[in-house]
Amino acid sequence: MSRMKWALRGMLALILALTVTVPSSAWAATGDVISIEITGGSSQKMSVGETVSYQVMATVEGLDNKQDVTGGVTWSTSNAKVVTVTKGKIKAIAAGEATIIAQVSGVKAQVTVQVQDKIKSIKASPSSYTFVKGNEGTLPKVTITRVNGKEEDVTSDIVWAVSNNLAVLENGKIKGITPGRVLLQGKYGSTTVKVPVAVTDIITKVEVTPATMELGLKKSKALKVIGTYSNGKTVNLSKSIVWTSSNPSVAAVKNGTVKALTEGQTTLTGTYQNQTVTAAVNVVPTLQKLVMGQKSLVLSPQSSITLGVMAQYDTGKTTMVTSSAVWSSSKPGVATVTNGKIVAVSKGKTSITAKWGNKKVTIPVTVK
User: Could you say which residues form the signal peptide (predicted)?
Assistant: First the structure.
């Protein structure tokens, strides 16, 4: 065997000795480097400013396992304006494409690097999760926005991890194991997106307050929803529960607050885990004022007149409430009133008042 051959084998043995710990007797069978490969595949994507370090594994004659020969690699780049390489550390300089070549003992491997503009922002959807222990959900969709304004769906390229063992990742899903809080973290190159995850205990009871309500048109009222866990502890679910309305045109719920839309009745149904609660809503017009048929009266003694009272609502609706109003005279000796019928008694002045609901109307009456 030539001197060059022995020199090459000696150099390879030194490289492997520096990077892998094996029994010294193993090197007796060590031969030539048959092939090498750059971990991570034959193509890589990077963003401007990112750096990454590659590992190079070699198939060596006489050895069953691949060997890490990263420390003895000679690196080169096809375009230093796009990508530079120093001791296996790759740095993306500008948008474009370059080929990184690794060489050991005359054996080569390469990886094509595509460099894109810097990432301005990264976003996960949904941006947070709440799981009942034992339940699971699909991992988020992730998009990035580059400095040039271009948006990309990078969901399939994200590497996910969880911050603790309260949740686990299985088959593209995240599963809640123990009640508590955990952070789901996704990496795209050197960019990270964080998604908070709350793992909750099982809810055994849900109660809503008020269970019935009456609202004026365009008025709002908050619903308070309390959930009880299997261990007896309670939690405020007011803004977590999902509501539906049997008559959405009458009333709707947003962030736990009911808003009256039109006159009528509806039933709100809220669900959380496997629990259901209902709240009845009656949307009624708001009484604005009462109106009498006369603004003032002048009567002769022993004469009489019957007045009507009309209720006016904010919807524009009007209703005659004469018989159900409460009537009164400030001076019954001058004139009396019963169900809107005013009877003059003697000369003088009095005030006739009709009350209905939370409103009243008064007119002056003169008897002469």
Answer: 1-28
The answer as to CATH 2.60.40.1080 being correct for domain 3-116 is yes
For domain 203-284, give the CATH number. Answer: 2.60.40.10
Pairing of strands 275-284, 212-216: parallel
Report CA-CA distances (Å) from 269 to 238, 246, 255, 263: 13, 8, 14, 19
**What is the distance between the alpha carbons of residues 92 and 79, in angstroms, rounded to a whole number?**
11
Written out in words, the top-level CATH class of the domain with range 287-367 is mainly beta
Range with the poorest average pLDDT among 21-25, 167-171, 195-199, 243-247: 21-25
**CA 330, CA 189: separation in Å to the nearest integer?**
86
CA distance 167 to 161: 10
> Which of the following CATH numbers is that of domain 119-199: 2.170.130.10, 3.30.2310.40, 3.40.50.300, 2.60.40.1080?
2.60.40.1080
Q: Which helix (H) or strand (E) holds 249?
A: none
Parallel/antiparallel/unpaired status of strands 191-200 and 129-132? parallel
pLDDT of residue 208: 96
- Does 3-116 match 287-367 in CATH topology? yes
> Parallel, antiparallel, or unpaired: how do β-strands 309-313 and 348-356 relate?
unpaired
pTM beyond 0.85: the answer is: no
Q: Which of 13, 95, 83 is nearest to 52 (CA)?
A: 83
